[in-house]
Amino acid sequence: MIWWICGCSWRWREARSITHGAERSALALASASARIKSMETALGVPLLERQRRGVRLTAAGESLLDHARVVLHQVAAMQGELTARARGLKARIHMLANTSGASEHLPKALASFLAKYPAISVDIEERESAEIATALASGAADLGLAVEAMLPEGLDRFPFCDDRLVLIAPQGDEIAQRRRTAFRDIAPRDFIGLTEPSALQNHIAMQAAKLGVRLRIRARLRGFDAICQMVEAGVGLAIIPDAAARRYSRSMRIKMVRMADPWTSRRLAICMRNRQSLPRPVQQLADHLKTFATV
Questions:
Q1: 11, 52, 91, 209 - which has most CB atoms within 10 Å?
Q2: Are residues 245 and 169 in the same domain?
Q3: Residue 31: exposed, middle, or buried by beta-carbon count in 10 A (0-12, 13-18, 19+)?
Q4: How many domains does the chain contain in total?
Q5: Greatest CA separation found in the chain?
Q6: What phi, psi does 216 have (nearest 5°)?
Q7: Has residue 232 been placed in a domain?
Q8: Tens-digit pLDDT profile for residues 166-197
Q9: Per-residue pLDDT tens for 26-58?
Q10: 41: domain CATH number?
Q11: Does the predicted model carry a pTM greater than 0.90?
Q12: Is residue 80, in this structure, part of any structural domain at all?
């Protein structure tokens, strides 16, 4: 029934018609209407609002859909875990992280976790912090690593690390001689960026838009190593995590310049829905990551 509720609620909301929703659900109109009525009677609240031009979900219907999605995610996780157990794998964890978290702050901690728990696998997906919060709240992921200031009150979290963004420039560039600069002063310059979709690149582009500037991206590359090589060659400037800049500045002719803008200094937090409701493997990963927290 949960599968039917979630699938049909979504289709009805998109179709805005019981008739069309029934067709998309492969149901006869009378059967679909009867099921709706049965649910509304059982729950004691109307789920659909009948209008002249169709139907729309009521607030209760939207709430039911949200809860159904969470249940579906948990059912899918259960099925995946049981299937994995049959293959000798204990569990698979779906974790979301912003660009800096996924590339700079998680690998070492995850490596030791996976070595400790060989029967558990972890899938890391890059998302923007606001998207991570939404996905966790709706049950679409197990854990997240996101900018703490972007997280709503309803999520459990603990601080994980500080994440500063810095400007990198060729050693001979005038900007490389500065100790500190503001984004406004460098925004008109040529830049090297990450390929799309990239949570970090979207974040930087959004800050440029607030200044009324569209960044001039000379090249888009997949990793910070390649970006630093382009900067070293004088193709453009780049904004990358401090950890990556420090690593590559040891072997490349690039200089790090601190940025004065508040948005370049963030704190990342591990976030999740109610910790006690999470599967045991997810709780184990959360506990493990807490031992690697640096703030």
A1: 91
A2: yes
A3: exposed
A4: 3
A5: 75
A6: -90, 100
A7: yes
A8: 999 999 999 999 999 999 999 999 999 998 77
A9: 567 677 778 778 878 888 888 777 776 667 778
A10: 1.10.10.10
A11: no
A12: no
